[in-house]
Amino acid sequence: MGYCPNTPDEIREMLAVIGAGSIEELFAPIPAELRAKSFDLPPGMSEFELMRIMREKAAAGGAEIVPFIGGGIYDHIIPAAVDHLSSRAEFYTAYTPYQPECSQGTLQALFEYQSVICRLTGMEASNASLYDGGTAVAEAALMSLRITERNRVVLDASINPLHREIVTGYLHGLSAEAVEVAPDGCCSNLKRLIDSIDEETAAVVVQNPNFFGSVQDFSELAVKAHEKGALLIVSGYPIALGLVASPGEMGADIAVGDGQSLGNPLSFGGPYFGFIATRKRFIRNLPGRIVGETIDNQGRRGYVLTLQAREQHIKRHKATSNICSNQSLCALRGLIFCASLGKKGFEELALLNYDKAQYAKSSLAGVKGVSVMNAGSTFNEFTLSLPKDAAPVVEKLLASGVAAGVPLGQYYPGMDNALTVTVTEKRSKAEIDRLAALLEEALCS
Amino acid sequence: MAKFFTKEHEWVEMDGAQAIVGISEHAAHELGDITFVELPKIGKSVKQFDTLAGIESVKAASDIYAPVSGKVAQVNDKLEDAPELVNQGAESEGWICRLEGVDASELGALLDAAAYAKYLEGL
Amino acid sequence: MQLIFEKSVPGRSGVRVPLSDVPKASPFPDALRRKEPVLLPEVSELDLVRHYTNLSRRNFSVDTNFYPLGSCTMKYNTKVTENAGGLFAGCHPFLPLLPGGERLVQGPLSLVHGLEQQLAEITGMDEVTTQPLAGAHGEMTGIMVIAAYHKARGDERRKYVIVPDSSHGTNPASAAMAGYEIVTIPTAPYGDMDLEQFKNAMSEEVAAVMMTCPNTLGLFNPHIAEICAIAHQAGALIYYDGANLNAILGKVRPGDVGFDVIHVNLHKTFGTPHGGGGPGSGPVGVKKGLIPYLPTPRVQRKGDGSFAVEAHPEGIGRVSDFFGNFAIMARAYAYITLLGREGLIEVSEHAVLNANYIMARLKGEYELPFDQTCMHECAFSASRQLQDGVHAIDIAKYLIDRGFHPPTVYFPLNVKEAIMIEPTETESKQTMDLFIDVMLEAARIAREDPEALRQAPVTTPVGRLDETRAARAQQVCCE
């Protein structure tokens, strides 16, 4: 049954009002030859039978594996209040706040979210969320094309390779050019990035920390980009921003990233949210919804969707983006996560990630034949050089219930021996020590 | 000089060799409270009836087309902070920009004030 | 209500960070460190919980109010599917991308594959990708697939995408993001895309035609098969915007009609919650000839019955990070499994019954520009009320005072003062009768005391808000 409440008697009454003899008569406008040729689905079932099937699927989901992997998605603590508050049906069963008077809950929460994103990134204007980290980088690249009226984007190849694939696809559709600059070891090649910026370059895009875990200062890159009339786009990892200088501090024009680490569970790939923030002067070029503060007819403060004339429902093919639904509820989770930890807790959390990763880095570097490849500082990820191909080593450790890291060979030709390891605050010393022991064992055999 | 109008509701008025361009009172009224005027870049060259600028209210966004060909010589930068000037005086202090290098013969393709008024009655 | 930042007291905190069990590392270098901590609010957990609980109470939602928002399918979100979606919280999406990782995540991979199969059968398509993260994202993906198809055939002339003027704004915006120019066809007096103008616009330079069927007026286009045939004859492909799929579940399959590409909105038709504006999910289905161009990776079933993540080299690349909004997909999979064949047919039948019931009862008082049997939604115009100076928005605001979320207003654009009502199948006759009574009451007040409607709403925490001021001030975060 389809959760349809009306009884046969009520259906008869309704049909009488309509003046139809049967429900089927209402489908008469559909010509017979267009009717479904098949609808071969199994019969329905009860909640209890359904949950048995779903639990079986979830049980075979790898949740028992200890993850030392990131790849842009991180296993962090989620305060209990995040689940409870975001499960309020008034939040999750509402839709886009088109009618502000009966949507102040969502609207104020999104305004608070935008404020948190601005404070995290050191920017002045945030939208109300994008889909995910990869599409956020792509939207930022498109935004730079609009602002500069240029057609070429320089991509640092130490950006998450999954994100680069998305950006390249988006740019390809618009016949814009994406130029990739290979990293220097595990760091962004600043000199080559600077040399790649020319008069046709809309933006140079970097990630901090990058896919290898290296943290760098991009202030000089910002200056050089601006000298050529190009923008600097920095993709960031929000938990790292508890410790690492913000894109704003480095002079970036657009800050983006995946907000998953802020209170959103792994959930096999989503839903997460992308964030995007910029300087006030570029606000009209932002994609997607933006919430703004105003007053009502009695002077009371309230919130509305604003600058909507940029958007698809008004500007259609000339809109700044096609995005309509975003990831509002995930952004709400991000907000509650940040407010729950607060100013001090957020910094402590970042420091804890750093400490654990530093411990793991020295432990793992102590394994015979293993060395750390990152030349400079790292946050909670780092890249190891193993004495042999990393892929079979990772496969072997998976059998022991540990995801040791992401082997880089499939993403960076020639880096077959490299392994990027992620250590969040959730990894215990015992788990780290076990990883070191298992790695040693795997490399000896 | 007199104003000439397009059917897309722009006006143009010659001032010496330059043409002053704006949107009509009627267009400003239809759009409602103007929230943003996207001014053209100085030096931009446009052909008659090409897109010249943009204008937005809360619920609508419209292109502003060039009533005559020319090169943007000056923009009304007061509109950057006070787009409401267009509502207050679309055909006076709410002007959008000045074009230079204009061929006055193109005015022949436009409506004079009387013809525009008549055109509006027919809408 | 205060902002959470305004409730902040230095030194307060909501949740404790775990203690460290490793030695303190040497300090993070100052040169790379942020100058000051992130200025996040400092509140106790109770203050936090009260703040967001009280904020939530300032929303109308499906669980608290009838929410007949046209084109959005605000049906009831079953609770068991919420539970089902939460079961996968601990599954890391990178696991299957590791060597030997696929066998550890057979459960979620089987779900991706299973949902793709369910959706293919429901829509009459040959294969489905779940990667797109919302309806508009699905549209863009679908059009990119179409572009890749034409390109692979060496057909580079096609630079236009045709959309009717009644289409969702996302259609032209998505096609533009995929690099196409847009041709818009007006609506004919019979309430759908003007067939003659469409024929004239069709050429060998058209890559695709995007149609919503039933259309945004809730009407089933009787010419739809002809439109498909005309497009195909000129070598163009035809795209189905699945926003209104709820009307035709089990009755019509777009694939059977002749559509080549479709996106479905799991958050509309398949009962996943709307989340205050997302997350949604917009899987895309295609006919056989387009399968090679679907995004990478694909989840495939191997000969031994296990599931594998495979690269899709000819495809358009990656459109999202992993397999889509998985926990939303899990809810939709659970919903389809729960309802089954008969349940899904009941959905479309009752959605159409409910919409026609509301239409029949309101058409005496409200102008119905296209008076014919509707599908899952009906589009009225407030043009009669406008004679008394009452706009659609005034009626909408009055409904808020009476405890109903307003229908969609001012869309579709081709209906003046549009009021588009979509009750969905999950509403009872009693609820709809209450709504209808209030709509009729609003029509009466429009005649007798129009000013009262223009003042609405008066029962909400804020009255009508000054949107012009918001757009001019651009205050989008707190100082």
Automatic annotation (TrEMBL), chain B:
Lipoyl-binding domain ranges (all copies): 18-100
UniProt keyword annotations, A-Z: Lipoyl
Gene Ontology CC annotations of this record: cytosol; glycine cleavage complex
Top-rank lineage group of the source organism: Bacteria
A GO BP annotation: protein lipoylation
Cofactor(s) essential for the protein: (R)-lipoate
Cited SUPFAM superfamilies: Single hybrid motif
Cofactor descriptive note: Binds 1 lipoyl cofactor covalently.
InterPro entries in UniProt: 2-oxoA_DH_lipoyl-BS, Biotin_lipoyl, GCV_H, GCV_H/Fam206, GCV_H_sub, Single_hybrid_motif
Modified residues (N6-lipoyllysine): K59
Known function: The glycine cleavage system catalyzes the degradation of glycine. The H protein shuttles the methylamine group of glycine from the P protein to the T protein.
Annotated family: Belongs to the GcvH family.
PANTHER family, alphabetized: GLYCINE CLEAVAGE SYSTEM H PROTEIN, GLYCINE CLEAVAGE SYSTEM H PROTEIN-RELATED
Subunit structure and binding partners: The glycine cleavage system is composed of four proteins: P, T, L and H.
Protein name: Glycine cleavage system H protein
Organism name: Citrifermentans bemidjiense (strain ATCC BAA-1014 / DSM 16622 / JCM 12645 / Bem)
